[in-house]
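Before surveying the methods themselves, let us examine one representative protein, written as a sequence plus integers encoding its fold.
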Amino acid sequence: MPRFADGVIRFQNEVYPDKRALFEKLAEGQAPEALFITCSDSRIETAMITQTDPGDLFICRNAGNIVPPHTEHTGGVTSAIEFAAAALKVPHIVVCGHTECGAMHGAIHPENVENLPHVRKWIGFAKAAVDVVEEISEGKTAAEKMRLLLEQNVVLQLQHLKTHPSVAVRLAKGDLTLHGWVYDIRTGAVDAYDEAQRKFTPVDQYY
């Protein structure tokens, strides 16, 4: 039996009974606190990182935690954003990048994804972040350059978010806050983007 299937059985027998009241409440509807846009990477466990329960986060995952700029083209990310902002009225949207991101490695080394045409096209939405890093990373090590790309990609995707009408309307009304995070898999650290200071700072200092 796969471990994930065994996990379902343990959930039904051991976890669900203790949280029955929560799940019965959730069956009536959802009112998440945030839309959480992060990477598909299997090492990113949103509930563990944020210490949240089912129903707290409306989660959208894709390679590179990317938000395509708004167009008339309908896609999974675009529809998730629209539903979260316009229907669920989430008060927060988080874009969360992470260290050791394969998508960002592919963005900065496109030759590595030459045989993955859909991945190559998708991470093209991070091209502006790559260009920024190439412009401002002179003298930096490869590790420093990658960290800068992780941060600049989050900043870029926040800019893309603002082009979505459902987000723009909420921002104009002043009842939606955008957050940009970078999560370090090795250390557990999470840094948040301070737009006023134009830099990332630890969450316990930023908030």
Remarks:
- The mean pLDDT is 97.
- The two ends are 44 Å apart (CA to CA).
- The CA atoms of residues 167 and 173 lie 10 Å apart.
- The longest strand covers residues 92-98.
